[in-house]
Amino acid sequence: MCKRPRNLCLLLSVALTLAAPASLAASFWEEDVWHSDDRGFLYYPPEEVKKKTPDPNASKDLSLILSAAELRAEYTKRLENATFFPTEANVLAFQEVNHFVQEKAALFTDMNRRVSWQNPQFDFSTLNPAANFAQVSLKEDRNQTRKEQLPKIAQDWGLMYFYRSDCRFCALQSPLVKQLKSSFGFEVLAVSLDGSPNDHFPDALPDNGVSKLLTNGLGLDRVPALFMVKRDQSASFLVSSGVLSLEDMLSRIQTLALSKPGESLFGGAQAANSVQKTSNFSASEAFAGFGLTTPAASPSL
Fold this sequence. Notes:
This protein has a 5-stranded mixed β-sheet with strand order 3-2-1-4-5. Strand 4 and strand 5 form a beta hairpin. It is elongated, with a radius of gyration of 42 Å. By secondary structure, the protein is an alpha/beta fold. Helix 3 (68-84) packs antiparallel against helix 4 (88-118). The protein has helices at 3-18, 22-27, 68-84, 88-118, 132-156, 168-182, 210-214, 246-258, 283-290, and strands spanning 157-163, 188-192, 205-206, 225-230, 236-241. Helix content is 45%, strand content 9%.
């Protein structure tokens, strides 16, 4: 008799629990335990599964790399690992990324030449072909053009040649510089940094400070040095420092005197607004120190 009411209460409790709405079941996990008298405050929900932290030294899947910056970082990381820890695995990982980079470079090179073939306006070889017979023809044209231009350049520009007696290269360069005077008509003023004579330039003068004027006060620490100076005193350029062949000196003189930077590339389209850099050189001051003048009728160094 006494057990029936208790059993009946138990059955009703189970029935009410089963009939509880889903929202109540969900709120059981979210409600504050301190505001529920029917819930023990010592309950702990299950801990979330901790996510594994990725290994920063682990190699990336190269197929997932989509930028040059990301590839550069991966390449550098693998190279450093292989260099400082040259295990078989690290070296193999570097070889993999190195091969990947080479494949990318080969693909770019192949595509670049194909695009150049179809767009000759961007192909430098159309203006400067690599074929040997074409280069021979171009050289002949350049020599003929230079032969025509040098006399005019020699009228507008003079040369200043600096040497020193203890310089072994000066002995090699001096006869070549003399040919600029004897064969091409350039007026050459030889200047000795230590006051020594020169067999090829018996009228050489000691340096009175002109070397500093030509170099904006820095002076010359390397000889032989050849400068070209415009006779109207508006510009000067360092042609060579050290030993240079006669062909190269003539080529530099022609380039510096007649063309702006970039004019030899793609017909000069890139040099429309280029300005040559000239040194702050006062020819009158330098010549005055040597007791020379630059007459207007027949300009002379």
